[in-house]
Task: inverse folding
């Protein structure tokens, strides 16, 4: 499912809503995946990496809040923005949506132009979040607070990766090439000509 277009997963238990969303999004340059319940949505996410999820809250079985929490709990999907698209209008429902991990909340019935603007904004923000400003000279990365730090510190803070450190052959030569002990070591490691 990748033809260069952003992929949006629409999740709603109402087939007419899915049909309308599918038509609206596909006519505006998006590829669309659909799911009629939370389990179908999570199954879709195991095989596909959408750029955004449009998620209804009131669905049989697993509601939208639980689906969003599952998405955000999974290391492989937590970066995917979720927009709740629902008829639930109470402030507590809206707050619960954001607490579950949603990035936006659109009320039904929705205005098509507004929904498309929100989808476009969050897809663009996802792309920008995936970009890392890196110094072209020292290779430090600007962190979320705007400070420059070593690439390994940034990666350790934003993932579960840990680094061990060593020196490659080229850097060893740059650092210790003029040291006598290094020259002797290099002589020992040179293969003899036959």
Result:
């Amino acid at each position: 499912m990748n033809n260069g277009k952003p992929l949006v997963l629409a999740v709603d238990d109402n087939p007419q809503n899915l049909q309308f969303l599918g038509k609206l999004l596909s006519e505006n340059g998006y590829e669309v995946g659909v799911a009629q319940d939370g389990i179908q949505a999570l199954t879709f996410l195991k095989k596909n990496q959408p750029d955004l999820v449009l998620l209804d809250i009131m669905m049989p079985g697993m509601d939208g809040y639980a689906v969003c929490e599952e998405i955000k709990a999974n290391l492989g999907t937590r970066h995917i923005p979720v927009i709740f698209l629902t008829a639930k209008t109470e402030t507590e429902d809206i707050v619960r949506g954001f607490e579950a991990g949603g990035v936006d909340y659109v009320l039904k019935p929705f205005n098509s132009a507004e929904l498309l603007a929100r989808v476009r904004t969050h897809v663009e923000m996802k792309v920008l979040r995936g970009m890392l400003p890196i110094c072209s000279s020292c290779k430090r990365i600007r962190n979320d607070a705007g400070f420059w730090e070593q690439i390994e510190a940034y990666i350790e803070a934003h993932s579960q990766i840990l680094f061990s450190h060593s020196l490659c052959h080229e850097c060893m030569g740059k650092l210790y090439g003029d040291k006598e002990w290094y020259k002797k070591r290099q002589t020992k490691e040179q293969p003899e000509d036959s």
Summary: Strands lie at 7-11, 31-35, 52-55, 82-86, 104-107, 141-142, 148-149. The chain has two domains: 7-129, 141-189. Residues 141-189 form one domain. Residues 116 and 159 are 32 Å apart (CA to CA).
